[in-house]
Amino acid sequence: MSQIHILVVNPNSSESMTHEVEQNIRALFKKELNSKSLALTFATGPASAPLQIDGKESSLRSAEACLPMLTDAGSVYFYNKYDGVLVACFSDHPLVAELLSVIKSTTSKTVVMGLLDTSIHYCNMINSKPFSIITSNKEWVPILNESVESKYLTSSVINQSLWKGTISSDIQVLDLHLPENFAKIVDVIRKENIERLKSKIIILGCAGFSGLQTSLSKEFPGAGIVFVDSVAIGVRVVMMIADFNKSVSSP
């Protein structure tokens, strides 16, 4: 495998959140990074982007703020310098569609995806286990449910009733990593995602959850619960598609 270079974009302006995500993802992909099969660059939205994204209005503002740095050929974050761009917001983020709209009129093979679509695609491919999402604030519940149900589910998943919906932890994005909130997150997952919805796969539906999958798994030993770090699966999917694009374009 030739080296795949992926840009992970945190589309809000919280540098601390980007730093936490970067630390976790670099640890998870240590083998690939050490072997030089993968290179990662992390970007934070400019100061004009919202500090956190908590709904449609802030999503639109963040897309407007971030698109110029990804489409400026002189920018270190210019999309065509990378094999893939992962928009690290767990939503049908408008930045994905806007960047793809720019790319479609070019010859670029840069892969562009978001956290929601890559996570749901993973569950679609498993195609046997009930799954649900745990997210941050309550405003995301109807937004995510509508996006998943209108765009991302396969007919097989629908026919088997594997999709169980979205649950809110009722914790703001930037507070998800605070140690004092961990017990509340565990309690919500136990009562809602596992006991009520009977989920076997639980998608950590916010980049702010990144790095918590191991700690959460330890809270439910022997239950057969899989916690999906949405940033980690996003990087993996983008990496796989970008590598395939390179292989089919090689002479």
Automatic annotation (TrEMBL):
Protein name (record): Protein DCG1
Gene Ontology molecular-function annotations: amino-acid racemase activity
Gene designation per UniProt: KNAG0D03100
Gene3D superfamilies registered for this protein in UniProt: 3.40.50.12500
A Pfam family it matches: Asp_Glu_race
Coiled-coil region: none
Matching InterPro entries: Asp/Glu/hydantoin_racemase, Hydantoin_racemase-like, Iso_Racemase_Enz_sf
Family to which this protein belongs: Belongs to the HyuE racemase family.
Upper taxonomic lineage: Eukaryota, Fungi, Dikarya, Ascomycota, Saccharomycotina
Transmembrane segments: none
